[in-house]
């Protein structure tokens, strides 16, 4: 019996709804396969915890998480707590503390889900966006002086290090190499940002020499939005900075039909620390408690988690079940269906058990 310990942090808004759905799917996979077990421990960290304790998680939160095999994360964000507190109080400390420098975001149009792109169908859009997740524009470097005075200054400095850029480029080239098309697009903005981004381009060029079988090109981030929209078939693996990939992956999620289906993995490729798996979407307080949150992103990221843990069969089985269910039109309102979170989850559980 292979056993994995998973720390679940459902946190805010629809986080608890979609993580509960995902845990149900994991339990069902364990029952179906028989030789694998997931012991899930759930932590009540997030905005409610913040209101009680003045912090999003306990001071020794990272030490607690460190012993788990993986972290399964919902979303943070509450109407009455500032976003920079919820984000910097929980999700970012985990990503940075555990050096999860590769943020991996697969996008596909799933069966039964319609892309807002008139000519894009299942198979036309099959991307993986690799986001640099440890530095760049979100390094947290900067400050404010002369607060409130007319001469107040705020700086937000993007940090690019050779080590940081090299490791994300290597990760992206390796991932591109593992995919059938062996195709990588490096996103940049070196025309306007002439220091860090020029170094980014140079390192991409250098790392590319280690991967002669990968075809790669370079795209300015603004032009990239156009290419994603007009020629989605021309892209496969994509690597971009923290900020650029943050924006591009929201676009990718929307083009694939809904943010509610888009997953992400925060990976420490060296496996010194647990990696963290989460839906891309936020806490969606406009639909919290209504029972209609789309659990597909949560299932898909659970499948990424299974892959990372080396459980390729369970991962593939889960995605087959999800695609069977979306293909049968059992979907939530954000993608045009009428099913509830529970309906979709029950259908996925049924598909996990009935497939061979
Ligand atoms: P959001 O992703 O929560 O919601 C955007 C829109 O998509 C909403 O209309 C929502 O109903 C819909 N949506 C999102 N996920 C869905 C799902 N699974 N099923 C159906 N519909 C879904 O982004 P928004 O509204 O900008 O932010 C809300 C809060 O979430 C903010 O506090 C924000 O800071 C936080 N946030 C947290 C993230 C995280 O924890 N990683 C990521 C993005 C936002
Ligand atoms: Mg985002």
TrEMBL record:
<comment type="similarity">
    <text>Belongs to the isocitrate and isopropylmalate dehydrogenases family.</text>
</comment>
<dbReference type="GO" id="GO:0051287">
    <property type="term" value="F:NAD binding"/>
</dbReference>
<keyword id="KW-0464">Manganese</keyword>
<dbReference type="InterPro" id="IPR011829">
    <property type="entry name" value="TTC_DH"/>
</dbReference>
<dbReference type="InterPro" id="IPR019818">
    <property type="entry name" value="IsoCit/isopropylmalate_DH_CS"/>
</dbReference>
<dbReference type="InterPro" id="IPR024084">
    <property type="entry name" value="IsoPropMal-DH-like_dom"/>
</dbReference>
<comment type="pathway">
    <text>Carbohydrate acid metabolism; tartrate degradation; 2-hydroxy-3-oxosuccinate from meso-tartrate: step 1/1.</text>
</comment>
<comment type="function">
    <text>Has multiple catalytic activities. Apart from catalyzing the oxidation of (+)-tartrate to oxaloglycolate, also converts meso-tartrate to D-glycerate and catalyzes the oxidative decarboxylation of D-malate to pyruvate.</text>
</comment>
<feature type="domain" description="Isopropylmalate dehydrogenase-like">
    <location>
        <begin position="5"/>
        <end position="348"/>
    </location>
</feature>
<dbReference type="GO" id="GO:0009027">
    <property type="term" value="F:tartrate dehydrogenase activity"/>
</dbReference>
<keyword id="KW-0479">Metal-binding</keyword>
<keyword id="KW-0520">NAD</keyword>
<dbReference type="GO" id="GO:0000287">
    <property type="term" value="F:magnesium ion binding"/>
</dbReference>
<keyword id="KW-0560">Oxidoreductase</keyword>
<dbReference type="GO" id="GO:0046553">
    <property type="term" value="F:D-malate dehydrogenase (decarboxylating) (NAD+) activity"/>
</dbReference>
<protein>
    <recommendedName>
        <fullName>D-malate dehydrogenase [decarboxylating]</fullName>
        <ecNumber>1.1.1.83</ecNumber>
        <ecNumber>1.1.1.93</ecNumber>
        <ecNumber>4.1.1.73</ecNumber>
    </recommendedName>
</protein>
<dbReference type="GO" id="GO:0050319">
    <property type="term" value="F:tartrate decarboxylase activity"/>
</dbReference>
<dbReference type="Pfam" id="PF00180">
    <property type="entry name" value="Iso_dh"/>
</dbReference>
<dbReference type="InterPro" id="IPR050501">
    <property type="entry name" value="ICDH/IPMDH"/>
</dbReference>
<comment type="pathway">
    <text>Carbohydrate acid metabolism; tartrate degradation; D-glycerate from L-tartrate: step 1/1.</text>
</comment>
């Amino acid at each position: 019996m292979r056993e994995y310990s998973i720390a679940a942090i459902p946190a805010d808004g629809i986080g608890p709804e979609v993580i509960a759905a995902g845990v149900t799917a994991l339990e069902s996979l364990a029952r179906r396969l028989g030789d694998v077990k997931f012991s899930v421990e759930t932590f009540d960290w997030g905005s409610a915890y913040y209101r009680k304790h003045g912090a999003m998680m306990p001071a020794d939160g990272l030490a607690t998480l460190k012993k788990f095999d993986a972290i399964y994360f919902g979303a943070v964000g509450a109407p009455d707590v500032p976003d920079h507190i919820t984000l910097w109080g929980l999700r970012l400390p985990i990503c940075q503390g555990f050096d999860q420098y590769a943020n991996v975001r697969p996008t596909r149009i799933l069966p039964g889900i319609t892309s807002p792109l008139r000519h894009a169908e299942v198979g036309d859009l099959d991307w993986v966006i690799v986001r640099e997740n440890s530095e760049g524009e979100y390094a947290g470097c900067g400050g404010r002086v002369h607060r409130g005075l007319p001469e107040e200054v705020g700086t937000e400095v993007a940090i690019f290090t050779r080590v940081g850029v090299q490791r994300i480029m290597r990760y992206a080239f390796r991932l591109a190499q593992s995919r059938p098309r062996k195709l990588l697009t490096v996103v940049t903005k070196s025309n306007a940002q002439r220091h860090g981004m020029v170094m980014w381009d140079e390192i991409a060029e250098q790392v590319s020499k280690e991967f002669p079988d990968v075809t790669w090109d370079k795209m300015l981030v603004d032009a990239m939005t156009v290419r994603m929209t007009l020629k989605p078939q021309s892209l496969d693996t994509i690597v971009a900075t923290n900020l650029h990939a943050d924006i591009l992956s929201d676009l990718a999620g929307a083009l694939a039909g809904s943010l509610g289906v888009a997953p992400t993995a925060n990976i420490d490729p060296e496996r010194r620390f647990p990696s963290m798996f989460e839906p891309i979407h936020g806490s969606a307080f406009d639909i919290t408690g209504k029972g209609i949150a789309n659990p597909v992103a949560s299932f898909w990221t659970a499948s990424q988690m299974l892959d990372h843990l080396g459980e390729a069969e369970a991962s593939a089985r889960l995605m087959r079940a999800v695609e069977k269910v979306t293909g049968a039109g059992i979907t939530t309102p954000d993608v045009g269906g009428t099913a509830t979170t529970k309906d979709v989850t029950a259908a996925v559980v049924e598909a996990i058990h009935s497939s061979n």
